[in-house]
Write the structure tokens for this entry.
Amino acid sequence: MPDQVAHQHVEDIFIQGQHCYTDRYYSNNWQIALLDFARYSPLLKKGADMIRGIKFVSIPVRNQDVSLKFYTDALGLKVVTDQPFTDTQRWIELLIPGAETGLALFTPEGHEKRIGEFQSISFWCDDVFATAKALKSKGVTFSQEPKSEPWGSIAVFKDPDGNQFALSSKGKAK
């Protein structure tokens, strides 16, 4: 049939996926095959009792509505959850498009003093200078303008509550 792709063996089919870790290789491809579960189950179970990543980090905020508008409109994050949580706050969880780690706009009781401080969170992008220019056009304020360092580029921006975050490149600037 013209709308189907012919393959001689099912082992020839791959899908692009997230990272696959085993004791033998690291690959971004997952091979599709008729799995002999007993043969592959040790690989599937490996690491099941280990930390696998960071689900979200919490950003302390004063006004969740103002912060939600900033993080979605200016930074381009997407809402995953926005629901009642306590009498005074909602649970707002956001995702960075293309990333696995999310942000929660939530201030735990007793942590209000953290609002407006430098947060130990570094966002990364391919081009700090271009990203900073784009963010500035959306009203984002920078407390440190982009600059090149031997290890890459960095800038520091603020959210509406004065929380400060690093914006850096993943590697050395070109």
